[in-house]
C-alpha cells in the first residue's frame, strides 16, 4: 500500500516537476524561433488581409530584434510608407510627408494589427514570462504563460500565451493593454519548414470585443540577408 | 570614312552594353488623378470652386545604387479667383498649369546619398505650421487644409547626405546647394494687405520670374542626431525669400501696378522630437534674418527690414480605442514693426485635431484653429473613405470666421463644403 501511495505521488507530481524544470522565459524564446528566424539578419514579406478582404503587403528588413525596417508595397496609395524600429524608438516615413516622423510604438499600423505585431515579434526580449495557475489550463498539451511587459515602451501590457509542449510551437495569444483591458486574440498556424525549422506562417488576429473584426497575417519569403548600418538610420528613410 | 565606321562600332557597342544593363533595370510608371468640388457657404453668390491635379511618375532603378525619378504634373485651382475681392488681377478661375515635378538622379552607397536635379526637401518636425520647411517653394493655394505634399514645388538642388552611427547614437549631415532659386505661388495681395489699400483701387501685380541659373545661388545644411528617444536637428540656409514683398512699379488714380520682389535672407534653427511615454512632442524654432515686410505710410507702399522668430510645438496623443489627437501651438514674432504693416508683430495660433481611425485607411478628422492676436477661427472636418483599393473619396467642410482684421477671416470667402476623389494608378 505504501509503495502504491509512493508511485501515485510520483505520478501526480510529474507535471509539476516538468513545469519547475522548464524556465517559462526559455519556452518563450523557443516559441519565438517558431515565428521567425530568431535574431539572425534576414528579410521577409507580410501580407495582411482584413475581414473585408482588403490586402496590404509589407517587406520587412530584420537585422536583429532592435533593428527592423518595414516597407509597404501595396496598396498603391500606401506604397513607399516605411516604418523603422530601433530598440523602442519608431519612425514612420510616408512619401507625401517626405520626412521620417517619430511615433509611439503603440500607434496602429493597419486594422487590428499594431506596428509591433509586424516588426517586433520577439516576445522574449520584451516580456517576463510566468506560468499561469494550473486550474486555468484549458489545454493540457500546452504551456499556458503570462507574459508581463518589462517596461511600458512595448506594444502590450500583458500577453497570455499558449505554447505547444510537444515542439514549442506558439498556438494562441491574447493581448492586453497596459490598463489590463483585453484587446485582441491571435492564433498561429500553417507551420512550414523555413531555413531548417518548422515555423508559423499565419497569424490570425481577432478583436477581443468585436469578433467580426479580424486580420490575417501571412509571413513568407524568409531570406537570410546582411544589411548596412545606414538602412536603420532614421535620416535615410527619405532615400 | 574609317573614323565614321569606328564611331558606329563604338555606338553599337555602347547600345548593346546599355541593352545588357537595361535588362536588369526596373521601370515603374504610376501616378494619381485628383478632383475636388467645393460649394461655398458664404452669403456672397459664387461659382463652385474647383481643384484638380494629376501626376505621372516614372521611376528607374539602374541596379542597386543608381535611381532616377521623373514626374509630370498638371494642376488647376480656382482658390485665387475665389479669394479675390475684385480689386486684384491675379490668376483667374480657369488657370491650368503643366509643369515638371521632381526630376532627379540619385546615387546611394552604404554611408552616403547624392541627389541631383529638381527635388523637394522637407525640414522640421512639427505639424500645422511648418516654419522650418523653407527649402521647397509652395503653391500657397494648397496650404490651407491640403497635404503639404500637394503644396510643395520642386527646386533644382545638389543634395548630399552622409550617415553615421555609434552605439545608440545615429544621425546624418546634409549639404544643399541650389543654383536656381524658385518662389512660392502667392495668394491675392489682399490676403496679405487686408484693407490697407483704398477700396476701389485696382491692384495689378507682376509676378517675379525664376532667376537665370547661377545668377543667385542658395546654400545650407542640416545636422541631425537621434539618441535615446530624442531626435535633434540643427540647420541653416541662405536663400531668396520664397514669399514676396511688393514694390511700386507705377500708379494712376484708378490703378496701382506692383511688382513682386524676393530678397536674400538667412535662416537658422533647430527641430526636436521626443517620445514621452506614449506621447510625442515635436518642436521647431526658426530665426530668420533680414526679412522684408511691406507697410503703408502716407498712402505710399514702403518696406522695412527686420528679423523674425518662429516657433511651433505640438504633442501627439497615443491612440485611445480608435481615436488620436494632436495639439499644436505656434507663434511668429517680428523683432520690429511699423504701423500699417502687412502683418502683425506677433501672430499666435493653436490647433486642436482629433482623428478617428476606422481601419483600412478609413478615417474621420476634425480640426479647429484659433488665432489669438485678432480673434479668428477655422474649422475643418472630413471623412476619408477609400471606396476600393485605388480610389479615395473625401467628404467634408472648411469654415473661416472671426474678427474682420484676423488672418483667418480673410479666407471666409472660401468657407465651403467639398467632395473630392483621388485615384491612384500603376501602369
List the helices and strands and how they pair.
The complex is a heterodimer of chains A (239) and B (427).
Chain A: H1 2-21, H2 24-32, E1 42-50, E2 55-64, E3 67-74, E4 82-86, E5 89-93, E6 100-103, E7 108-110, E8 113-114, H3 115-119, H4 123-126, E9 127-131, E10 142-149, E11 158-164, E12 170-176, E13 182-194, E14 197-207, E15 214-224
Antiparallel strand pairs in A: 1-2, 1-15, 2-3, 3-4, 4-5, 5-6, 7-8, 9-10, 10-11, 11-12, 12-13, 13-14, 14-15
Chain B: H1 2-22, E1 26-40, E2 49-62, E3 66-77, H2 79-83, E4 96-108, E5 112-119, H3 148-151, E6 155-166, E7 169-180, H4 189-193, E8 202-206, E9 218-227, E10 230-240, E11 245-251, E12 255-261, E13 264-276, E14 279-297, E15 300-316, E16 323-334, E17 346-359, E18 362-371, E19 376-386, E20 391-402, E21 416-426
Parallel strand pairs in B: 8-12
Antiparallel strand pairs in B: 1-2, 1-21, 2-3, 3-4, 4-5, 5-6, 6-7, 7-9, 9-10, 10-13, 11-12, 13-14, 14-15, 15-16, 16-17, 17-18, 18-19, 19-20, 20-21
Amino acid at each position: 500500500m505504501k509503495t502504491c501511495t509512493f508511485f501515485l505521488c510520483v505520478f501526480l507530481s510529474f507535471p509539476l516537476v516538468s513545469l519547475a524544470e522548464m524556465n517559462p522565459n526559455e519556452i518563450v524564446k523557443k516559441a519565438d524561433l517558431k515565428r521567425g528566424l530568431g535574431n539572425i539578419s534576414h528579410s521577409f514579406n507580410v501580407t495582411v488581409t482584413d475581414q473585408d478582404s482588403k490586402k496590404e503587403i509589407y517587406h520587412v528588413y530584420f537585422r536583429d530584434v532592435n533593428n527592423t525596417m518595414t516597407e509597404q508595397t501595396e496598396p498603391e496609395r500606401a506604397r513607399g510608407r516605411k516604418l523603422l524600429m530601433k530598440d523602442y524608438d519608431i519612425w514612420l516615413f510616408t512619401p507625401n510627408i517626405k520626412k521620417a516622423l517619430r511615433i509611439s510604438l503603440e500607434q496602429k499600423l493597419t486594422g487590428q494589427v499594431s506596428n509591433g505585431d509586424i516588426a517586433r515579434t520577439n516576445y522574449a526580449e520584451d516580456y517576463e514570462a510566468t506560468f499561469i495557475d494550473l486550474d486555468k489550463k484549458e489545454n493540457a498539451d500546452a504551456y499556458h504563460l503570462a507574459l508581463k511587459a518589462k517596461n511600458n515602451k512595448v506594444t502590450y501590457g500583458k500577453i497570455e500565451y499558449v505554447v505547444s509542449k510537444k515542439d514549442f510551437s506558439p498556438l494562441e495569444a491574447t493581448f492586453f493593454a497596459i490598463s489590463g483591458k483585453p484587446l485582441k486574440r491571435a492564433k498561429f498556424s500553417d507551420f512550414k519548414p523555413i531555413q531548417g525549422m518548422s515555423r508559423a506562417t499565419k497569424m490570425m488576429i481577432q478583436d477581443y470585443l468585436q469578433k467580426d473584426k479580424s486580420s490575417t497575417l501571412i509571413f513568407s519569403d524568409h531570406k537570410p540577408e546582411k544589411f548596412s548600418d545606414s538602412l536603420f538610420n532614421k535620416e535615410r528613410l527619405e532615400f | 570614312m574609317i573614323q565614321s565606321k569606328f564611331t558606329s562600332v563604338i555606338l553599337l557597342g555602347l547600345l548593346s552594353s546599355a541593352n545588357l544593363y537595361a535588362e536588369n533595370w526596373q521601370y515603374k510608371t504610376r501616378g494619381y488623378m485628383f478632383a475636388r468640388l467645393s460649394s461655398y457657404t458664404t452669403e456672397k453668390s459664387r461659382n463652385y470652386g474647383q481643384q484638380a491635379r494629376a501626376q505621372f511618375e516614372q521611376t528607374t532603378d539602374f541596379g542597386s545604387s543608381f535611381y532616377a525619378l521623373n514626374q509630370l504634373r498638371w494642376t488647376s485651382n480656382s482658390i485665387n479667383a475665389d479669394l479675390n475681392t475684385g480689386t486684384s488681377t491675379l490668376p483667374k478661375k480657369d488657370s491650368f498649369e503643366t509643369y515638371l515635378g521632381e526630376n532627379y538622379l540619385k546615387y546611394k552607397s552604404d554611408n552616403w546619398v547624392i541627389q541631383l536635379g529638381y527635388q523637394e526637401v522637407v525640414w522640421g518636425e512639427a505639424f500645422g505650421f511648418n516654419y522650418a520647411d523653407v527649402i521647397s517653394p509652395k503653391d500657397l493655394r494648397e496650404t490651407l487644409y491640403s497635404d503639404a505634399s500637394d503644396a510643395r514645388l520642386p527646386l533644382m538642388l545638389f543634395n548630399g547626405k552622409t550617415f553615421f552611427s555609434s552605439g545608440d547614437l545615429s544621425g546624418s549631415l546634409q549639404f544643399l546647394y541650389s543654383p536656381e532659386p524658385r518662389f512660392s505661388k502667392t495668394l491675392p495681395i489682399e490676403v496679405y494687405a487686408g484693407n490697407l489699400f483704398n477700396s476701389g483701387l485696382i491692384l495689378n501685380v507682376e509676378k517675379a520670374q525664376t532667376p537665370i541659373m547661377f545668377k543667385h545661388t542658395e546654400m545650407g545644411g542640416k545636422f541631425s542626431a537621434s539618441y535615446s528617444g530624442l531626435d535633434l536637428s540643427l540647420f541653416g540656409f541662405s536663400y531668396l525669400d520664397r514669399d514676396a514683398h511688393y514694390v511700386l512699379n507705377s500708379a494712376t488714380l484708378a490703378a496701382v501696378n506692383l511688382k513682386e520682389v524676393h530678397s536674400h535672407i538667412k535662416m537658422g534653427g533647430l527641430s526636436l522630437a521626443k517620445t514621452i511615454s506614449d506621447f510625442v512632442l515635436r518642436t521647431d524654432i526658426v530665426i530668420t534674418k533680414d526679412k522684408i515686410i511691406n507697410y503703408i505710410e502716407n498712402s505710399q507702399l514702403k518696406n522695412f527690414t527686420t528679423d523674425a522668430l518662429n516657433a511651433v510645438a505640438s504633442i501627439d496623443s497615443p491612440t485611445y480605442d480608435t481615436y488620436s489627437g494632436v495639439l499644436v501651438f505656434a507663434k511668429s514674432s517680428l523683432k520690429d514693426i511699423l504701423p500699417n504693416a502687412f502683418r502683425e508683430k506677433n501672430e499666435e495660433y493653436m490647433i486642436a485635431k482629433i482623428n478617428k481611425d476606422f481601419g483600412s485607411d478609413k478615417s474621420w478628422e476634425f480640426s479647429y484653429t484659433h488665432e489669438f492676436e485678432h480673434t479668428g477661427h477655422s474649422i475643418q472636418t472630413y471623412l476619408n473613405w477609400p471606396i476600393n483599393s485605388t480610389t479615395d473619396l473625401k467628404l467634408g467642410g472648411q469654415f473661416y470666421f472671426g474678427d474682420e482684421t484676423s488672418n483667418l477671416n480673410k479666407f471666409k470667402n472660401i468657407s465651403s463644403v467639398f467632395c473630392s476623389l483621388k485615384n491612384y494608378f500603376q501602369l
